[in-house]
Amino acid sequence: MEERATGSSRKNRGYEDLKRRILTCDLAPGAYLDETEVAATYGMSRPPLREIFRQLAGEGFLAIQENRGAQVTPMTHKTMRNFFMVAPMIYASVAELAAQHATAAQVDRLKSTQARFRAAITARDVAERATLNERFHAILGEMADNEYLMPSLARLLIDHTRIGMTFYNASTPRFAEQQSIAADQHDAMIEAIEACDPKASSDLAIAHWELSREQMQQFVGAPALNGTLVMTG
């Protein structure tokens, strides 16, 4: 029983760590994962690792390529064009529904995540800030409680976080100002959700998106010859 629990814990740790490494671009978009190497890293055999790969593929983190194995989901010119097209609609819809369906327990988790988000900004921890921002918006998705929106939001947040890792620079005054505004907008969204105000929540989500959209677009360059997005800056 203990051995089975240890194996399950090792599998869970591997799953969570691979997610974090993909979100923070420690594993680059488009990179192929060597099964033997990854299995050794997490101290597990190939069968449970393949289960992790299949789960991550189902969630949009990986693509399983026949005869080539698992590949970190690429970011292409096409996917980025689609990202910028649908992001404001999804974020606004999620925020609107969150204000209608959030539970007290979910609001508490959102506030806790927000406190950690602010701490990461203060510490200038770019990776922690990015992953906590992803978590904040994922909790909004849980609040929205819509089985059609949640998969789209989850996929959107993967690329939003990865794009963010390419241009966030905590040392510049402009970035510091934007992060302060973003944190304030998070607080305002929490207040709108607690007040059960769908319109205010939705409007804040759009303003929150617009805050980062222009800068994000500046750092998305032309597609490379192989179709993988070139990040500049």
UniProtKB/TrEMBL annotation:
| Database matches in InterPro entries | GntR_C (IPR011711), TF_FadR/GntR_C (IPR008920), Tscrpt_reg_HTH_GntR (IPR000524), WH-like_DNA-bd_sf (IPR036388), WH_DNA-bd_sf (IPR036390)
Q: Which PROSITE patterns match?
A: HTH_GNTR (PS50949)
List residues of the HTH gntR-type domain.
Answer: 8-75
List the keywords (alphabetical). DNA-binding, Transcription, Transcription regulation
List the GO molecular function terms: DNA binding; DNA-binding transcription factor activity
Question: Pfam families in the record, alphabetically?
Answer: FCD, GntR
Does the keyword DNA-binding feature in the UniProt annotation? yes
This chain's protein is named: GntR family transcriptional regulator
| Organism encoding this protein | Rubellimicrobium rubrum
Taxonomic lineage is: Bacteria, Pseudomonadati, Pseudomonadota, Alphaproteobacteria, Rhodobacterales
